[in-house]
Fold this sequence. Notes:
The chain is α/β, with parallel strands linked by helices. The chain has helices at residues 9-23, 36-48, 54-57, 63-68, 103-114, 134-147, 177-188, 205-208, 214-227, 245-257, 284-297; strands at residues 52-53, 73-76, 80-81, 91-92, 118-123, 152-156, 193-195, 233-239, 262-267, 301-304. α6 packs parallel to α7. The termini are far apart. Mean pLDDT is 82; it is low at 165-173.
Amino acid sequence: MSPQTPQTPTVKAVAAQMRGEIEAMPEWLRRPIGKASELSEVQKIIKQRQIHTICEEGRCPNRGECYAQKTATFLLMGPTCTRACAFCQVDKGHSPMPLDPEEPQKVAEAVQLLGLRYAVLTSVARDDLPDGGAGWFARTIAQIRLLNPDTEVEVLTPDFWGGIGRSSEGENSGLDELQRERIGTVVEAKPACYNHNIETVRRLQGPVRRGAKYDRSIDVLRTVKQLDPSIPTKSGLMLGHGETEAEIVEAMADLRDAKCDRLTLGQYMRPSLEHLPVRKYWTPAEFDRFGSIAREMGFERVRSGPLVRSSYHAGESDGN
Length: 320
């Protein structure tokens, strides 16, 4: 038997710190991952086709529950993102893998095998692509509908920023035409819902969402409604980065001003020590209160709870 390689103090210290954070996590954030048989059935379908889900890449705490219901949120255009948001578990890099020309077909087949009535498509940010991946969303939606004509498809897109429309100070001066065209490509595919997350409050956009802008994201949702008012829009925030109650309410008001219809509120949980630390664990009662405020503001569907994520119970019509 070969001798074990001793851990260095640094490795031990990192492991101890991460273990301490996990042990300090409130009881309401602990949940079983799910039955191995239910997990493996969905994972088998995904892995056989060499496609990706945000459930796995983002280590979603609800994946056991969703897999048991044979649901999954597909991650398009590979597992490597061209941006480096400080909260996200997805891999980052400036040279993502080339697009797999068969991916739309593979995703459509997976939807068929899982028997999904409601499928969700999201993606990494692909700033390296000429259209930011907008056409890939449209192509995948079309392919899903060919094989699954009764399946509704929700999208959760990046901001599709075109990299122009900047002021002399380098700030985004508004939604540029290239960005509007890309959003229009997805809107023309008629998704059942168009989701784009602002993720956090205005003050914390810089440290949390590197490469993104608060007003730019609000304008994505506003533009969808301008292009097609019939498509429901949706956004979400992760709480726990140091935001105040007033800032959360302000963000919800900004979303309603852009005619956003649906809202998700969930607790940020640190994926690793390389990511931003949790500044506050909001209680279930506090999430309930924010959910009530959101409904009073006019959001037609609200999911608010510590373990809520963007696509949690996405296809359900009730707002509880």
